[in-house]
Design goal:
single chain, 77 residues, alpha+beta, 3 helices
C-alpha cells in the first residue's frame, strides 16, 4: 500500500466510520472494498444502498461512498 493509499484510507475511516476497508488483489486487478459494520434496512436496500461496495481504485470507492451517502440522506437515515 502506498503512502497516498494509506492517507486516503485514513480519510475514509474518518468520514465514513460505519465501514471496514479492505484491499483484495484479484488476478491482474487490485480491488478496494468497503463493508458496512451494520446491515441496512430493507427500505434502504430497495433505494439502492448496499452493505458492500467494491471498486477498482480508492478514488472510485470514495465516489461510490459519496453516492451511497446521498441515497441514505434522501431516506433521512
Amino acid at each position: 500500500m502506498t503512502d497516498l493509499e494509506r492517507r486516503l484510507i485514513d480519510v475514509l475511516v474518518s468520514t465514513h466510520p460505519g465501514w471496514r476497508y479492505e484491499q483484495r488483489d484479484l488476478p491482474g486487478l487490485p480491488r478496494w472494498w468497503a463493508i458496512r459494520y451494520y446491515p441496512l434496512r430493507p427500505d434502504q436496500r430497495k433505494a439502492g444502498a448496499r452493505d458492500v461496495l467494491g471498486r477498482t481504485s480508492l478514488r472510485r470507492l470514495v465516489s461510490a461512498l459519496a453516492r451511497h451517502d446521498k441515497i441514505l440522506h434522501n431516506l433521512r437515515y
